[in-house]
Amino acid sequence: MSVDKNTLHRQFGRLTALLITCLLIVFLLCRPTSGFAQGNSARTLFADNKAGILQIRIIDITSGSKSAIGSGFVVNDNGLIATNYHVVQIAASKPEQYRIEYLSASGAAGSLNLVDVDVVNDLALVKITSQTSSQTSSEIAAVLPLAAAEPAIGVPSYALGNPLDLGLTVVPGTYNGINQTSYHPRVHFTGSLNSGMSGGPTLNQAGEVVGINVSTAGNQVSFLVPVAALQQLVAEQQLRGQSVDNMALRIGQQLLADQEKKFAQLLSLDWPTIALGEASVVNELSPFFRCWGGSNSSSDKAQLLNADRTCRSEDNIYLNEKFNSGVIEHQFFWLETDKLNAPQFYAYYSRLFDDFAPGNKAREKDVGDYQCDTQFVAVNNAEAKPQRKTKAVFCARAYKDYPQLYDVLFLQGTVDDSRAAFISHFTLAGVSRDNAKAYARKFMEVAQWR
Amino acid sequence: MAVIIELLGWGGKRQRYFRVETRSVTIGRGYENDVVLDDAHISPNHLRLDAASEGWQLTDLQSLNGVEIVKNPSSPSAQILGSDSPILIGEGAEIKVGRTRLRILSDNHPVDAAKVLHHLEQDAGKLNRLSIWLPLFLISLGVEIAALYTSSFIEWQWKNVFSTILSTQALLLFLALFWGTMGRFLRGESQFLSHYCLILLAGLAYSLADLLIGILGYNAGTEMIILILSPLNALLILAFLLSANFALATNMMPRQRWISSLGFVMLIIVVSISAQLKGWGEFSPYPDYFSGLEVPALQFASAEPADDFIANFDMIFTEADRLAID
Q: Which of A82, A108, A139 represents a domain boundary (last residue)?
């Protein structure tokens, strides 16, 4: 027995040694090659493409110095340059205070004109102003080709840009495909994007643009706008052949079209539900909804049960530094008590009912004040007898620059039970009248105390 | 014809008076005088008044501090009387000897007609009894505890509410003391318990009315009712309370009383409006909706179908458009 055991042990040991040797050989064979390949790619890509990548600077006209920087790259022979909308937004909305300039790797500089935007995908096209174009077009003529097909997940890719104004930098990383948790498609890029790289390209090993640097969640989790969105915008621009004159109108149309498409999709769905106390509430509507929940059920000192569920869609549209849109929020509360009497329970309930706010930020120059209506509403539910009586609140504020778009807030709480209550709430940012009404109707049908 | 010498106190109010039947009256600190005054600055024989055809002849009897003529209907300019030159003073003249002010009148000097005793003064005065105050005090204490209890959604602990109850009652006590002191000075009677009872009654009336306004506003579904009626209730009750306090503590006529108390209320309105003016029309990123809730037993208004509620959205949108343009 002991011999057998020893033999077995020895055999196992030999096998392990063999395996380790094999792995070592593979490792030794591959490591220098891949290291060489990556280093070489990055080096070559940087050398080949630096002429096509520009620093985009926002210059404060009064002080004459730069107030923000980003990156951009040349996309066609006409000198059309792609960048992020959020890089040039401030100059677009305040042309009397700011102008856009570029600085190429070779040191050439000049001013830029805003040509077109895709606010939903955070893209902008700018062009060298005509009087400066003749002398510098040759210096920045290196056009970066846009990739025709989406790369496979895991493909090494290289983000270029000007992080923190440190000069043109290349950041190697991995292409991780289109992120499914965002309504507006974003490529998940594993690599460190830093501020200032916004608007710069991410290239594959062939030197083709696969995405436009747009944001980061930190710790190497970064996001790119898929190149398809840029191709679409460039194609539209070529068809038009000239700059868009009324940028606010263009943005308004894009926002309207985007919400129309999004709500058509959401309203056509059969909304999934999940139980919260005795109520049934809306569950994650689509992959880009993220839900969280909590309750105080484990607390002994609590005088009442407070369970909540909050869902938020990840589809923020950047409009300016203090104004964003597009977000959808659902929030539900189930309150129940056997320790508090009716006035005490309602003292808590009304305090909670007072505490609802919009899901997006906005300033006075962007939106009007909220207008609200409060009504007692009977919830029509065939199953529940008798009907539930609720207090419902609806508030809306209008966008100042983009007509027909509103931020809305809906809040409904039951008022016919002394010891339990159900609150349902949603906010929609950047929605049309009809979509807001259709959404409210569907929401009130689905989120109910059964 | 007798002469009346009035000793004046604060604000020219009579503290006591002397009636002397003789034609010549001596005034001083010494006991041989007709009018003996207790003031260290008055000489033992300070002055003498002799009846004349129109008023009195005032002679300074070489007093240390002299006689100051404060008001003299016979010769309007005030003066200090020299030692040896008598002066003629008229009916209603006021003089100052030492630190004491005196008014000289004849006994046929006319007095004001009697004022009607206002029923408010009569009735409010009846509150000055422990047997009325105590039950009121206990009721208001009970109401306050009940209000605290019904609005508390954390575990009820007496120690948490003691300081609130104490500070409310201390405030009420302070107010009653203030009016009591005022009455003691102005009318010579404090009516402390009457004031205390009035303050407690006003507090109870305010609480009850505020509760009713809250229920009314909640059922009407609009905060506007509460925003208008609630301050109106507070100010109206305050005006009544002040008027009653004035009636008990001062000698004001009803009209003066009402003008004073309404004026005070107006002052509060002006101050609070000007304080709110700062935030008037300011943009807020948060919706200002009516969040009030009442228990189901106090909910009377009927509920509308969800479709009607949604049909109203258009009105809100139109209004929101208007707010965005302004």
A: A139
